Amino acid sequence: MHADYSTLRSQLFDLMSTSPKERGLVSPSTKRKSESLETISFDDMTYERTDGIGNRVESPSSEDPCKRLREDPKPQISKVYVKTDPSDTSLMVKDGYQWRKYGQKVTRDNPSPRAYFRCSFAPSCPVKKKVQRSAEDTSIIVATYEGEHNHVHPSQTEVAHGSCHNGSLPCSVSINSSGPTITLDLTKQVFSPGGSASGEIESPEFQRLLVDQMASSLTRDPNFTAALATAISGRILQHPPA
DNA sequence: CGCGTTTGACCGGCGC
DNA sequence: GCGCCGGTCAAACGCG
């Protein structure tokens, strides 16, 4: 998955660098929705992130800076395209967070109903999520995330205490949530040949801790968990057990 | 009985 | 000003 992601990301950057004008002219008529888009693809699902801050990379003075001085109350808007079965009408996208549905509407541009979710893990969490089936392909669900979680991942709270900040593990796994970067740091004498750590990594307890840590770090990213859930569900639905 | 979902009502922004 | 439309509220409902 990482290899596919890297390949597609390089292709995306290449595409963007070749046609920067088209990026800036995404929607010149719409004043508020013309932000930079970043689209990556994860096998059979596509993840698209919209930077809602409004920090245009190119031609920042094209719009009146005086009129656009107001701070955007929604600093981050991200879209996640999830491929599911068309028969699944629940519109429930499992991304690891706890969501509470507070509304559903049938919009004009899309016959499919749009569901509105709020993060129910923390009462003060400002994150909202809109889930709507794609009008073109009913097997694709578009989840739009608004805002950022002001709390840790629910599944992270228990595992986080056993992380390597106390030096208990000879490695570290980190995910840069601000960008599509996953870093796996295994440089800490883990694979030292002939070293004492060679026996340590083979211990089932260490492997279990490593798996737990990697899983917890990955599940911190809601986009990854959504993509993973989609991949698994997609495979199951495509190849149902006999 | 508590919690989450459903669903119609309500509200505010926007265009005509 | 009016109507449309997207988003939110909240009471009713259902389930464990």
Automatic annotation (TrEMBL):
Residues 88-154 form the WRKY domain. Its main location: nucleus. Residues 16-35 are annotated as: Disordered. SUPFAM superfamilies: WRKY DNA-binding domain (SSF118290). GO terms for molecular function: DNA-binding transcription factor activity; sequence-specific DNA binding. Keywords: DNA-binding, Nucleus, Transcription, Transcription regulation. One of its GO terms (biological process) is response to other organism. It is found in: Nucleus. Gene3D superfamilies: WRKY domain. One of its GO terms (cellular component) is nucleus. InterPro entries: WRKY_dom, WRKY_dom_sf, WRKY_plant. Belongs to the WRKY group II-a family. PANTHER family: WRKY TRANSCRIPTION FACTOR 36-RELATED (PTHR31429), WRKY TRANSCRIPTION FACTOR 40-RELATED (PTHR31429:SF3). This is Putative WRKY transcription factor WRKY76.
